[in-house]
Design a protein that fits this description.
Number of strands: 11
Number of domains: 2
Strand content: 15-25%
Structural class: alpha+beta
Order of helices and strands: HEEEHEEHEEEHEEHHE
Radius of gyration: 21 Å
Length: 217
């Protein structure tokens, strides 16, 4: 089995697929790339959690490799796949740490990635959607006027709207916000992922009142 792990040849982006990590109590704690999830499985630090017919089934690395063979035959489009010398291995959507039972703090990091995700990459003044490099961060109440860098005072703004607003408040610049900014209760990036069909199984593990997801690129 060790030779199979050592000679993994990834399919397109398969080892970069996102995997939700639960603690021992089945509470979500973070999201990691598949390559790190497989390390945890191989070292017997974690197990796969698979939701099947509204029940949870768990698998260690060896049993998940066996299950993968059946799924490769009957559900080839339901997973991302990693090819080894001897078999194809399905990338799990969820894994569970076998001994870790701490509960992360309920805090969402205020960073550019989460901010753009919260606002959907839309300028909060003109409402148009932009690529991330074409967006800037605007302080609603300018920092020169005492505005703080916090969730409720910063929004995404396109360069044109940011220049137009300048060092004024939206009211002074005769501009209106598309919506009032709020502090997310859980990671905006996670909410975008859950909107994807292949991450639907994450929903039942996400409890915003109890956990904070730390993203790993």
């Amino acid at each position: 089995m060790s030779s199979a792990v050592a000679t993994v040849v990834p399919g397109p982006s398969a080892l970069d697929a996102s995997v939700l990590v639960l603690n021992r109590l089945f509470m979500a704690v973070r999201v990691v790339p598949a390559r790190y999830a497989f390390v945890l499985l191989w070292k017997e630090i974690a197990e796969v959690v698979s939701v099947e017919d509204e029940t949870y089934n768990t698998y260690d690395f060896s049993s998940w490799a066996e299950v993968s063979q059946a799924r490769r035959k009957f559900q080839p489009d339901a997973h991302d796949w990693v090819r080894t010398v001897r078999f194809d291995l399905a990338v799990p959507r969820v894994i569970r740490l076998l001994t870790y039972d701490r509960v992360p703090k309920t805090r969402v990091r205020l960073n550019r990635r989460n901010l753009f995700a919260r606002d959907g990459n839309r300028c909060q003044y003109c409402g148009r959607k932009f690529r991330s490099p074409d967006l800037s961060i605007d302080h609603i109440v300018p920092r020169s006027r005492g505005g703080r860098t916090e969730w409720t005072n910063i929004v995404c703004a396109c360069l044109a709207c940011n220049v137009r607003k300048g060092g004024r408040t939206p009211r002074e610049a005769h501009m209106r916000l598309v919506r009032q900014p709020k502090q997310p209760r859980f990671s905006p990036v996670i909410s975008l992922r859950v909107g994807s069909k292949k991450y639907q199984t994450w929903k039942q593990f996400l409890d915003a009142a109890y956990w904070h997801v730390e993203l790993v690129d």
